[in-house]
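Hi R.,

Here's the chain you asked about this morning:
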Amino acid sequence: MTTGRVIPASEHPETAHRFEELVGAFVRVADAQTMGAFLRDLCTTAEIDAMGQRLQVARLVRDGLAYQEVSRRTGASTATVTRVAHWLRYGEGGYRAVLGGAES
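And here is the predicted structure, written out as tokens:
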């Protein structure tokens, strides 16, 4: 029976290994030009757009905008806005580290 629980990557050895390898690759990038080239090689246009949209959503949620307004400004669904807001508040702190500034 499916419980709907999201299984952490650490419970999937291959996923955990791929995640660690990806993190290591990002850490080795020394400058914005190389990072841009790496992202363009690694990701599809749709993936880059989706990640960029999530970062915009996180910034606007952090700044205190209503979810409907964030959705209107970014084109993200309210489900995406809600999910990003959840990770902004209760996640690993990655959004806060990248965005800096005030927290919502």
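One quick note: Residues 10-42 form one domain.

Cheers,
M.
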